Amino acid sequence: MRIDLHTHSTASDGTDTPAELVRNAAAAGLDVVALTDHDTTRGHAEAIAALPESVTLVTGAELSCRIDGVSLHLLAYLFDADEPELLRERELVRDDRVPRARAMVAKLQELGVPIEWSQVARIAGDGSVGRPHIASALVELGVVPTVSDAFTPEWIADGGRAHITKHELDPFTAVRLVKAAGGVTVFAHPLAVQRGRTVPESAIAELAACGLDGIEVDHMDHDAPTRVRLRGLAADLGLLATGSSDYHGSRKTCVLGEYTTDPEIYGEITRRATGAFPVPGAGGSRS
Fold first, then answer.
1. Eight-state DSSP code of residue 281
2. Mean pLDDT value of segment 116-139
3. List of residues 6+ apart from 48 with CB closer than 8 A
4. Do the strands 240-243 and 184-187 form a parallel or antiparallel pair, or are they unpaired?
5. Do residues 139 and 145 make contact, with C-beta atoms less than 8 angstroms apart?
6. How far is CA 261 from each of CA 56, 208, 219, rounded to the nearest angstrom?
7. Confidence (pLDDT) at 283
8. Percent above pLDDT 90 for the chain
9. Treating both helix axes as pointing N-terminal to C-terminal, what angle do 97-110 and 84-95 enclose, rounded to 10 degrees?
10. Strand pairing of 70-77 and 184-187?
11. Which residues partner with 66 through β-bridges?
């Protein structure tokens, strides 16, 4: 089995619609794909309706969190999307995205960048607006050559010249809420140092003690020594070690299935989840 547990669609900051994403997952030879848009489950229904027979969909979201001033992302899988407390927190994060993005555009304008809100809104479309949309606008304007080059201290990285913080969940609260909604939690790209500051391993240990299920080990932003280090940390803390592409369509260079999760780890994730079940493709089986 080929299992990719971290992808994004136009429901947040990817360039594939949810329907295109699941069809592309089938074309890439994936057996299982998770749709984990930022702080939203809005793309799930479309993905399920378009699901090819060969692909199983894991519903999820990537939750925006912050601890001690450091942003981190928590992948939440197979939770009850209608659980009121978790839904309320996701909506608070989403509602802060537009004011935050507008403020970042204003900062960029102060820095002499000829960016307009209308340009960012066009790029975001119906998705939850975020920094990748602003980064894409900077690429369009020729300010930076790639989206990744916008995520630097010079521009919109955490603490960068044009960065604005947004409402983010406390990760301990997020773990509690996801578990209360029957879901499973995995710390996304925990040592992606090129994205900015990362949390110390002691914080990962504290999250593990509070119920964190796993950490994303195999990821494009982790080099080989980092993956070895994280795999050892997962073993020491009794955490599941996952692998994922973090696919965003054409917005990033990663491809579907670039990194994958071991079938045994996937099986454990599905065993722990009680809020929702993986959705088999047309003609598939839940067994």
1. P
2. 93
3. 57, 279
4. unpaired
5. yes
6. 14, 19, 10
7. 41
8. 85
9. 20
10. antiparallel
11. 71
Encode burial over 211-239: b for 16+ CB neighbours within 10 A, e otherwise.
ebbbbbbbbbbbeeebbeebeebbeebeb
Residues facing 64 on adjacent strands: 73
Mean pLDDT across 130-136 = 93
H, E, C per residue of 192-239: CHHHCCCCCHHHHHHHHHCCCCEEEEECCCCCHHHHHHHHHHHHHHCC
Task: Provide the token pair at 35.
Answer: 């749709």
pLDDT, mean of residues 150-175 = 93
Token output for 147: 């989206």
> Residue 58 corresponds to which amino acid?
V
How does pLDDT run across 89-99, given as a tens digit for each residue? 999 988 888 99
The tens digit of pLDDT for each residue in 195-251 reads 778 999 999 999 999 999 999 999 999 999 999 999 999 999 999 999 999 999 988
φ, ψ at 56 (rounded to 5°): -105, 135
The per-residue pLDDT for range 60-98, each reduced to its tens digit, is 999 999 999 898 999 999 999 999 999 999 999 888 889
In whole angstroms, give the CA distance from residue 232 to residue 205.
13
| Contacts (Cβ under 8 Å, ≥6 apart) of 133 | 13, 101, 120, 123, 124, 127
**Cα separation of the two ends of the chain:** 15
The single-letter DSSP state of residue 151 is S
State the Cα–Cα distance between residues 49 and 28, nearest whole angstrom: 19
